[in-house]
Amino acid sequence: MALSAQQIPRWFNSIKLISVITAPQLRQCSQRAGKTLLCGFSAQPQMSSDNFFLQWGFKTYRTSSMWSGCQSANSGRQESNSARSTLLPSVNEQSQKTQKTPNFDSELSLEGLDDLPLLSPLQPVSEEEAVQIIAAPPLPPVSFTLRDYVDHSETLQNLVLLGLDLSKIEKQPDAANLLLRLDFEKDIKQILLFLKDLGIEDNQLGTFLTKNYAIFSEDLENLKTRVAYLQSKNFSKADIAQMVRKAPFLLSFSVERLDNRLGFFQKELQLTVKKTRDLVVRLPRLLTGSLEPVKENMKVYHLELGFKLNEIQHMITKIPKMLTANKRKLTETFDYVHNVMSIPHHVIVRFPQIFNTRLFKVKERHLFLTYLGRAQYDPAKPNYISLDKLVSMPDEIFCEEIAKASVRDFEKFLKTL
Amino acid sequence: MVRNPRVQPAPALGSVRLHPWNEVTTWPRPILGAASFIEERDPVCFFPVCGPTFTSLKVGVGHRLDAQASGVLVLGVGRGRRLLTDMYNAHLTKDYTVRGLLGKATDDFCEDGRLVEKTTYDHVTREKLDRILALIQGSHQKALVMYSSLDLQTQEAYEMAVRGLIRPTDKSPMLITGIRCLHFAPPEFLLEVQCMHETQKQLRRLVHEIGLELKTTALCSQVRRTRDGFFTLDDALLRTQWDLHSIQDAIQAAAPRVAAELEKSLRPEPGTQQLPGLGRPWDSKGPSSGLGLESCAGH
To answer: Which UniProt keywords apply (chain A) (predicted)?
Structure first.
């Protein structure tokens, strides 16, 4: 069919991986359809050919369905359907159609194509045939959501079953296109096996891939090199698995970049190799995030807040999150703790959790203790309340043990603030 | 017979596609069953494909509370936002506790503003303060009568004034219906103010003006709203109580009071001028939509 031949180049442009669907096959298929029509066979083939003609304008869905419909007539080719293309509709709907196998000629010459008369869409159809036409909406060529393609794409279905959240991925501009064009058997499976070998559990794969779907476009050899590099730096297998789980983008960084980052942390914080390793394993986000906030925070601690280097090292080994904290929040918290609560530096160094809590919590609890007369933060004096007990405990325990008051009193006090 | 392509029995799917995959890895069995599950369900409601069902909740706020103030803030959720306008038109009073500090004056009347003046305050006594407050209350009472467009010569208007039910009809500047001093310990003093149509900045300016009247200066260190209409501090939810169940309970607890109060305030009073907008039919709202409150501390 001349018309279907026109459709094919456009179809190829939109789908890269479909190499096996060649024009001759398609024409052969339509040739057969035309033949069956002319032969006046049973209703089923008639319907399928009518489908083809009625919807020739919608390139991907109907032409492909026609193709697979023809193929299913030859039972031997059924297995190959699934492996071929990701945008084809599920094979089932074709296998369910009990296609009567008409007597096709396996060899049809191409010259006969132009002689076949075209069936116009306005051709009258009998009632039973009309009822049997499955007129599902065709696949849209472009869409803003992956919902339209999930039904027909094996890759997407398997990814959803893995636990990937497509609704988050489709918000990224290029992610959806990437995922649609990937073939599950060839690309995705290799990388999934690699991740499983690394130590990521099945139920964690979903969250990992939702964050870093771009790992599918990485070369498997590169990924293996990066893991080998990390192992050469004496990170254990469990460590690497934990790091990759917490920071999904870790493996997308090249070896030089990883090297630079590890070197930066070692130099900047002047920690030993073992301590740097522990730090990075606890907070692998340091390796994947930007380095500017870390540099700025180091300056803040040193110059603005007045901590010495060994004090900063001690605090960071206890609470690595301090390196990536917000500068403004840090200064506000420190200002309140140091100036209003009058807590000296050496006490703050022993309890760096203060920098990890919200300021309003610290304020509320401090004001409550002052109101009760129990605000004693000097370790030398009696009734001393340590800072970590002040901030790290939930409200009930804080009220009962530290403030020796009931939670209701605390709530009433909060309403007077 | 029309076949819906989505409804497919599982074995066909397994036999065609997932078999090769299952042989390669020890992929969990449920994938076979789950695959049919995904086929049978309408993908429109399948969460990882379509995203969360509820993406937005419309919340409206009642009378404003600025960043340095704290206290009761009334919020309307969903259909309850309509009740917010009704509450606004009911012209109910609000209660504030205002803490003032004598001896300093700043440009924005707050403690952290730029210092403008420092004065002594030894001559200030409790009686002088009370006298000033009484003067303020009197002048505002006169303004209230003027804005309520009532003729005070009539008997009904007099009775309403005696009971304290005079309300302004429309927009008006800040009106103070009551002001008194709760605590006086120089340089600090604590006032309780009942007012309407106010902003917290005007309350701070009020403190500043009280200082000027006392021939010294004053600034405002804390403004706290203790009551907004019929919502008090007891009804308010703390930050730890900002979850679905507490909010639902609070809405349900407040709903009957809201309905009763709004009906009372919208009912036209006998003998007064009938204004358009009053006396319209009132439909009761269900407990699912309503007004809720929160108590928030200033920064």
So the answer is: Transit peptide
The closest alpha carbon to A302, from A312, A294, A292, belongs to: A312
Single-letter residue type at A115? D
Which bin fits A181, alpha (ψ -120 to 50), beta or left (φ > 0)?
alpha
> Within an 8 Å CB–CB cutoff, is residue B21 touching chain A?
yes
Q: Which residue in B24, B50, B233 is closest to A415 by CB distance? A: B233
Question: What is the ipTM score, two decimals?
Answer: 0.72
Please name the residue of chain A whose CA is at the shortest distance from the CA of residue B72: A415
Chain position carrying tokens 């296609």: A99
CA atoms within 13 A on the CB side of B207: 34
Catalytic residues of B: 66
Task: Determine the Cα–Cα distance for residues B60 and B74; give it in Å rounded to an integer.
Answer: 9
| A262-308 pLDDT tens trace | 999 888 888 888 999 999 999 999 888 889 999 999 999 999 999 99
* One-letter identity of residue B196: M
pTM for the model stands at 0.68
- Lookup: tokens for A154: 């094996």
Query: In this structure, are residues B119 and B216 in contact, taking their beta carbons and an 8 Å threshold?
Result: yes
pLDDT tens digits for A110-145?
555 555 566 677 887 788 877 887 777 778 888 888
Arithmetic mean of pLDDT, A73-80: 39
Q: Which two tokens stand for residue B16?
A: 């065609």
Residues A217 and A178: beta-carbon distance below 8 Å:
yes
Alpha helices in A1-99, H assignment, sequence order? 2-14, 23-39, 43-54, 59-73, 78-84, 91-96
Using one digit for the tens of pLDDT, what is the confidence trace for A190-245? 888 888 888 888 888 888 888 888 888 888 899 999 999 999 999 999 999 999 99
The residue type at A345: H
* A262-268 own/partner pairs: CB under 8 Å, 24+ apart: A262/A233, A262/A287, A264/A291, A265/A294, A268/A294, A268/A295, A268/A298
Q: Does A414 touch chain B (CB under 8 A)?
A: yes
